Amino acid sequence: MILRTLTEAELAFETYFTYGSKYNGTFTQITGSRNPSISTSLQRMGMQLQFLGALYPRTTDANRKQRVIKEINLILSILNISGLLNKSKLTYGNVFGDPGYGMILLGFALIKKSSTYNALNLTSKGIVDTNAKNFFDYLGAHLFQFCIKEVNTDTAPYKYGGLYAVPKFALNSPALVAGALGVYSDLVSKSSPHRSAIVTFSNTVVGRYGYSNNSRTFIPIGGKNTVRKPFGSSGYNAYTGMGLALAAHGHTGTRDLKKPSNGGNYLTQAKQIAAYYTSVLNSGQAHQLHEPFDFAGAASTITSINTVKARLVAENTGTSPSLVTSDASVSSATELLNHKQPSAYLYNLTWLGDTTFLAALDKRVVASGEAKSLVGVSAMRACMNVMTPAEKNTAAANRILSGFAGLLERGITTITDGK
């Protein structure tokens, strides 16, 4: 069944947000996630701002528009009072250690570029104005330094199995920073003060760490502080693809997200990530979403992951030091087996505007049970409350909200129920 993207986004708002007309209190943890003490709250509130910022100018019901603005005002107030937006938090380490900073700046960009901003109360306008500028300036300066300190110095990266280069830095957070800077530059400031940093990061990262196989690109997580290192991650790769696609706007602006920029081939590389996952999803091998880089096609088990861990430790030689130095340092890799909705994490890739990928993803989440089969409901929305207790849906649900924002901004007017 083909459904209207806007209608499904409106229904998601009405059901899961505090000011929704059909708000169900048992779903609080799904789109709440607004406790500043929770490590993931910043990125999830960023994705909620993206969703609400994209929804407001497109929904036509006057009452709903007022309630969407109330929700934005609420989130901005929580962020402001919490101190999470303070300049003192915008350190180099924080910005590249938490995807939330890029997610928040993208949310600010979607709000400031449209009528959403004009509808905010004066306090919220002040919060957006002050913090959007701070985020833009600090994240841009940090990305420039990141290219110098991390990207440009990683000239001989560790190669897992002697073949696949694994970066010493995590890719997802800086990719999102580059993407948010690109969108803000193109649509809000209409300038390119951070263009060189965006170009350097994207060109180098894609050229050095993106591996193509029949036009499909797969990128390992990487990161000297990321214990999973060369293990795959649908969530992290979705963030990377999303960031690269949006970073293109910092290279060659289009002044409209409905017109994706392919400046520097960033969108092409991002689409190769989507093409890789399209192949995996269409083959029914959803278990490959969290395999180590050299997956053989069998479903992951603790035993198979432990085998890879042992190999990583054994590869730690003086001539080509591994990023993994002990079995304990990769122990959390087994957490990959506990992800309940790994396919649904890929909905951040809707920012690419790739409808072929989206159709494959819709089918897979239904077939794998990651979406609750409801009549007349999109696969995306059906993923948001498939499991109990409700908090188990939080990670996927917020990615789906960002996915809805991507569809609305890219002008994708219809989605499917995955059948």
Fold blueprint:
Layout: E1 2-4, H1 5-16, H2 28-31, H3 41-55, H4 62-82, H5 92-97, H6 100-112, H7 115-119, H8 122-151, E2 158-160, E3 164-166, H9 172-189, H10 195-209, E4 211-212, E5 217-218, H11 234-251, H12 266-282, H13 302-314, H14 355-367, H15 379-382, H16 394-410, E6 414-416
Antiparallel strand pairs: 1-6, 2-3, 4-5
Write up this protein.
The protein is mainly alpha-helical and 419 residues long. The chain has one domain: Alpha/alpha barrel (Glycosyltransferase), CATH 1.50.10.20. 53% of the residues lie in helices and 4% in strands. It is built from 16 helices and six strands. The strands form three sheets. A two-stranded antiparallel ribbon has the order 1-6. Strand 2 and strand 3 form a beta hairpin. It is globular, with a radius of gyration of 20 Å.
Attribute tags:
two-stranded antiparallel sheet, two-stranded antiparallel ribbon, 419 residues, 6 strands, single chain, mainly alpha, Glycosyltransferase
